[in-house]
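Subject: Interface between my chains keeps coming out wrong

I've been trying for a while to get a sensible model of this assembly. When I model each chain on its own everything looks fine, but I need the whole thing in one frame so I can look at the contacts. Pasting all components below, labels as-is. Any help appreciated, I'm running out of ideas.
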Amino acid sequence: MKFIVKKKCASSRARLGELVTNHGTIETPVFMPVGTLGSVKAVTPEEARDAGVEIILANTYHLYLRPGHALIEGLGGLHRFMNWPGPILTDSGGFQTLSLSKLRTISPEGVTFRSHLDGSTHFLGPAKAMEIQKSLGSDITMTLDECAPAGASHDYVRNSVRLTEQWARRCLDERKDDSQALFGIVQGGIYPDLRDLSARGLVRLGFDGYAIGGLAIGEDTRIREQIVRLTREFLPDEKPAYLMGVGTPEDIIESVKMGLDMFDCVLPTRGARNGMLFTKTGKLIIKHSRYAQDDSPIEEDCGCYTCSRYSRAYLRHLYLSREILASTLNTIHNLHYYSHLLSGIRQAIKEDRLAEFSHDFYARRVENRDQSEAESL
Amino acid sequence: MKFIVKKKCASSRARLGELVTNHGTIETPVFMPVGTLGSVKAVTPEEARDAGVEIILANTYHLYLRPGHALIEGLGGLHRFMNWPGPILTDSGGFQTLSLSKLRTISPEGVTFRSHLDGSTHFLGPAKAMEIQKSLGSDITMTLDECAPAGASHDYVRNSVRLTEQWARRCLDERKDDSQALFGIVQGGIYPDLRDLSARGLVRLGFDGYAIGGLAIGEDTRIREQIVRLTREFLPDEKPAYLMGVGTPEDIIESVKMGLDMFDCVLPTRGARNGMLFTKTGKLIIKHSRYAQDDSPIEEDCGCYTCSRYSRAYLRHLYLSREILASTLNTIHNLHYYSHLLSGIRQAIKEDRLAEFSHDFYARRVENRDQSEAESL
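Reply #2:
Try treating it as a single job with all components included. I did that and got this:
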């Protein structure tokens, strides 16, 4: 994998980059929709591609449990299995042992956890995390990390940072295939000194890129922004920086300005399935009765498949009737929204007008009727 | 609407026809997938079209309850609402008052029933059934009928036939828009004399086409075939004959030979969502462990989107993981199977080789491992 910084923003730390992977070259900043189990939920790969998606994230934890990485390897790897020709990033599974598993025991060797599917016990160490990602054949792999729970103490998080560094070193050692990029994950919770410690340790080891992990798990937004900003400063300019699990359109714009290049989040896809649609003026909650007879599309000037063909009234009807097509059409729109947002950001960096782009973005978010209802979804 | 018989089969009563509707001309025999609530479940209109679908059926009962026919009319009719440019046939709602409603009371004026959604009480008479179908703007409308329950006595069914004829007459009187075709529905249960009575009455009234209703509700297959065969004989050759709610590929081939032109059934779409796939050799139950590592498509020589891109192993994984894409990909395949079957039948009639086509069809249905499991779905 190669990463080239093509242009730097004059007014912020944002940059336009190029990521050359085994499955194509993409520009950054980029958003990666989540394809947990080998499917971006509710859409075909072609629908995702047509909505502007260029790279997706798949989950090691999920694919290891179901259908199993050996099975996917036997069928030619994840790209072929799921019919996705573009780049794929896989996480290491560390995060899901925290967020999904009923029980996790952490030792220096790795994580013992219980499957959220059937309660069976599994062990995930650095070697296993690398083996699984090798089998999946992803373009970008991640080191196994320990994501400390929200509110963990300084002592807890310091140990977690040490362990994450040890595991990262072992992941480097275990890497069998240099054509797969490997990113280190900075932990350190909400503690600036531990973020510093974690970042320095990983940079010393040397990775193809660096991720900021352990955030977006319930901490205050302003604290998260401070941690992202200072952590980014510890990372080398010539490598891609990936903010894991983030986030809202606002989060992404602000993080881009801090120099972040890559993002992933379930928000556009999960939100779509829950009837929450992204628009330039804010969120639109499709079930609301005010859309019952609304013949306009989700957004007038949106060029997506859904907005070119369907009214809010139809989308509301499908959603209330629990039609599968509701999830598909809403997902296409939200994926397009995110892709379009990121391509707008990239264009703005190219043309040295990111500050205006950002100003316009916030100016359009006028008082939006659905915004407060959206918060509860 | 115009119907032209273009060719008659030499070896059976099958015929090749052309149905000219407000939304395009299609050839018969034709299968109509069910788009109950204004969506062929799990696929976009383009996916249905690409799978060979040319005409769909939508349900008056469902659309009346949700979102309401007036709303759809206000938004330009059902074609525009659901983005389906081809012909649409709507049923009259009579059947669902039997199959879905918790309570139905039948009077000479119509049916009083309770909504299966919220228990609210509604009245559906001939005028209302025509009003709803007018609002929806379907190309082919159906008269309101009383579908007698399975096992109903001769006395019960005789009354039901009389009522169905009275309602059919009132539907003709209430028809406001001659550009919408209107089909009469023959009832009469499993009683030959009542089928005769019902058919003669309707033919005297004169409709654009005739449907055989009140079957596929639990009666024995051989009895159903006898009733279809004899009922078909009572119907005029120059009008399209539609067998409602039927059926399996075998049912369709046999019914085509009896001179039936149109079919609808939830089997391909509902089956797809339950992991039951149609193939030339019979049914394939995708969840079975024998497909866990099977890299082949559902059918080797199938040209559908799904078979061109996905393995049985992937489809099994999606199905077991309850991914929405499982329903989409399976539905595309089953719709293609049915479309392809019907286009094969039409081609065979054109080339005077329906008997061989039928022979080949059955010959391929060798002992199929999944067949017995499929019966329980």
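Reply #3:
Confirming on my end. Residues 324-350 of chain B form the longest helix (27 residues).
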